[in-house]
């Protein structure tokens, strides 16, 4: 970096980290519920947050901060949700809502990837959770659900029977980088939002548009 005179990047690398990072390895691909269960000894008896890397949420107030504020009010588990097209409900965990107050849902039940015709709503679970440690009572059972995996949504549904689990419709825009077109779309839009990339990206897209016109004529 010194040879290339990238002193701004060098300064960022040299800054001391303000966090300690620990990792737990999931030895078998048994699903999200199993992955969280693998971290049970590290989590202990504290409420904890789960953030899935294939969901990126752009918001003025970070989605997790919004959820922490809700958790502090309700003192119970909080799941991030958003409305999705009805024909896509089979791709998500879906809530069965009882009532809604502002952005907070009181929830009757949670269903993992239901058939479109069986979905209780089009309000889908997105990859942000704040969970109480009681969730491990159900993850410990290692029950296999949809797709032959141990589903977190199934454990949340059980938790909701003994301890209220709320759904929160977050403020912000969600990008799904876990599917191909979502990854491409998020890359383009993120580039357009950056001062150091916007002009280059706009120029590229304009040239691409001209090339597409030639092929479509």
Count the helices. How many?
8
* Strand order across the largest sheet: 1-6-3-7-5-4
Structural category? alpha+beta
Order of helices and strands: HHHEEHEEEEHHEEHH
The CATH class name of the largest domain reads Alpha Beta
Query: What's the CATH superfamily of the largest domain, by name?
Result: Spore Coat Polysaccharide Biosynthesis Protein SpsA, Chain A
Proportion of residues in β-strands: 15-25%
CATH architecture of the largest domain: Alpha-Beta Complex
Short description:
This protein is an alpha+beta fold.
Task: Please characterize this protein's 3D structure.
With 217 residues, the chain is an alpha+beta fold. The protein folds into 2 domains: 154 residues, Spore Coat Polysaccharide Biosynthesis Protein SpsA, Chain A; 39 residues, no CATH class. The protein contains 8 helices and 8 strands; from the N terminus they run αααββαββββααββαα. The strands form 2 sheets. Strands 1-6-3-7-5-4 form a 6-stranded mixed sheet. Strands 2-8 form a two-stranded antiparallel ribbon. Helix 2 packs across helix 6. It is globular and about 55 Å long.
List keywords for this structure.
6-stranded mixed sheet; two-stranded antiparallel sheet; Spore Coat Polysaccharide Biosynthesis Protein SpsA, Chain A; 217 residues; 2 domains; alpha+beta; 36% helix; single chain
């Amino acid at each position: 970096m010194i040879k290339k005179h990238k002193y701004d990047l060098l300064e960022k690398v040299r800054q001391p980290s303000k966090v300690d990072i620990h990792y737990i390895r999931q030895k078998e691909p048994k699903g999200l519920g199993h992955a969280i269960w693998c971290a049970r000894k590290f989590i202990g008896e504290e409420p904890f947050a789960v953030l899935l890397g294939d969901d990126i949420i752009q918001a003025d107030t970070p989605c997790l901060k919004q959820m922490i504020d809700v958790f502090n009010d309700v003192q119970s588990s909080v799941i991030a949700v958003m409305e999705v097209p009805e024909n896509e409900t089979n791709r998500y965990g879906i809530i069965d809502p009882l009532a809604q107050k502002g952005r907070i849902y009181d929830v009757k039940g949670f269903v993992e990837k239901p058939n479109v015709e069986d979905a209780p709503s089009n309000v889908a679970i997105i990859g942000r959770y704040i969970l109480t440690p009681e969730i491990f009572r159900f993850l410990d059972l290692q029950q296999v659900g949809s797709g032959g995996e141990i589903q977190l949504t199934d454990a949340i549904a059980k938790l909701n029977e003994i301890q209220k689990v709320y759904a929160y419709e977050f403020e912000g825009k969600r990008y799904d980088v876990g599917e191909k077109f979502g990854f491409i779309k998020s890359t383009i839009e993120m580039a357009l939002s950056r001062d150091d990339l916007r002009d280059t990206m706009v120029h590229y897209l304009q040239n691409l548009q001209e090339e597409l016109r030639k092929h479509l004529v």
